[in-house]
Amino acid sequence: MSTMTTTTEKELFIKMVLSNWELQINRMNDLLGKLSDEELSAQTAPGRNTGVYLLGHLAAVSDGMFTFLGLGERLNPEMDEIFLRNADNSGIEKPSINELKDYWNKVNALFAQKIDQLHAEEWFTRHTAVSEADFAKEPHRNKLNIVINRTNHLSYHSGQLAYLAKK
Amino acid sequence: MSTMTTTTEKELFIKMVLSNWELQINRMNDLLGKLSDEELSAQTAPGRNTGVYLLGHLAAVSDGMFTFLGLGERLNPEMDEIFLRNADNSGIEKPSINELKDYWNKVNALFAQKIDQLHAEEWFTRHTAVSEADFAKEPHRNKLNIVINRTNHLSYHSGQLAYLAKK
What is this model's ipTM? Predict the structure, then answer.
């Protein structure tokens, strides 16, 4: 009985975190559905990142979660060079908007599928970027915490992407 | 023993959520420390909310959490008229930047103090905006979920406020 109760609580925590993640993904998709390719290609504010760059950046960060969470191979590690290690104006050629949207949708679909298979206990184990020694001292640095952190990262850039929409 | 284990897990999860809240508050304070009053008064992008409006908006939303979480009287309900129910260009006179920063700091300090006193079990009870019937069906709509939601709201506008800083 105590194990059942504990599992239920963990599942509740997981649902809280994942439902907030999904909420932000849905809001982002609503926004993407409203933006023309021209709008998405524009700078979010004068001299700031374009929508295209931020879309690629967010997709690459989500793709990186497969590694952090030990969920198997990620989809496209080469995207990191364009959207994480270099700035928007790097001069490196970016994929087309259709390719980027496809990447974004595939990453999200695979992530939703993988996390659905993850056992509740697994979420509270350490993520791959924290050492065993550090995790023993700081057990909140677990896999679920990565999703909380990445949800906020998504919200941060969603606030900027919102500036591409007509008022 | 099973109760102790359960409490520890709840406390761990609370720490995950609150440490992410504090992280975003600290980042916001770092940004505020860098911005001159002139920069904070500017629009975050052409035709978009000013830094002053977003600071008041974030402070008012945080202030509203006292009510949602049942943490007693909020500090300044009149701010909602200026920063929640009306837009930046409403023409309603706004407090000075010093007054707004003072409001922001006082709300954060009182919030930190109040949540420190909240018992772990309390965080998993329903917030005041969800009915008992709905909460029975959706137990993830608890007080802690409000903080997850508000952390993302803070991140969303922090991404916009970041555009006030020099590159």
Answer: 0.94
